[in-house]
Amino acid sequence: xxxxxxxxxxxxxxxxxxxxxxxxxxxxxxxxxxxxxxxxxxxxxxxxxxxxxxxxxxxxxxxxxxxxxxxxxxxxxxxxxxxxxxxxxxxxxxxxxxxxxxxxxxxxxxxxxxxxxxxxxxxxxxxxxxxxxxxxxxxxxxxxxxxxxxxxxxxxxxxxxxxxxxxxxxxxxxxxxxxxxxxxxxxxxxxxxxxxxxxxxxxxxxxxxxxxxxxxxxxxxxxxxxxxxxxxxxxxxxxxxxxxxxxxxxxxxxxxxxxxxxxxxxxxxxxxxxxxx
Length: 277
Hints:
The radius of gyration is 20 Å and the shape is globular. Helices cover 81% and strands 0% of the residues. It is an all-alpha fold. It is built from 14 helices and no strands. Helix 1 (8-33) runs antiparallel to helix 10.
């Protein structure tokens, strides 16, 4: 693996993995504490419509997927901000419509040669320098957003009624969280694919949540854990010649299982002693 670091595509893959891990650690924490996991899943699958449009009109995939995902996030925010009880129905609808739009535009594209499977299951080794610039700018925006408005985000995430009493614009921050979630989902698709993106946004966060006593620490731990999972998954992918996205998610899932078992053994030490008798 050390020798492989001489190749530019491996360097790009490692850098992309770190950038996406930081973004997904921060945004994933916001998604979890705001109970938006299903919303993020809807945005992830809806963004396939943007991929189809990008292929059809010959524009960069990231640009098409980002614009489509942001539009979907704005629409979701508008509909769900005051109608949380209707969220599941609307997400199911926009999920299906987005996928359908993407499939139709891909079908109508004459002689397209884009490997769409890479967007379903990820292709981290195909990350370009332009992709890295896009990811870097997004990470800077996300970190700046959380740094400057941390207290407002904290209030909106845990007690929106209290946030309103404090004069916080809950609608604005709710919408911004969804927009950043949409953009984070788009860059994560490049790493693990549309099918697996939710796992990347939730598994490290679940572990970090158990180890943290504040949202800030949770974001930090989530990013570090996600980086570890991503790099280890890439190492396994390179050595055994398997799909990188699936490898990263499997590493995450196995780590989550081990974490759960260890915490249960620590929680109930008497059970372990009785088993040894």
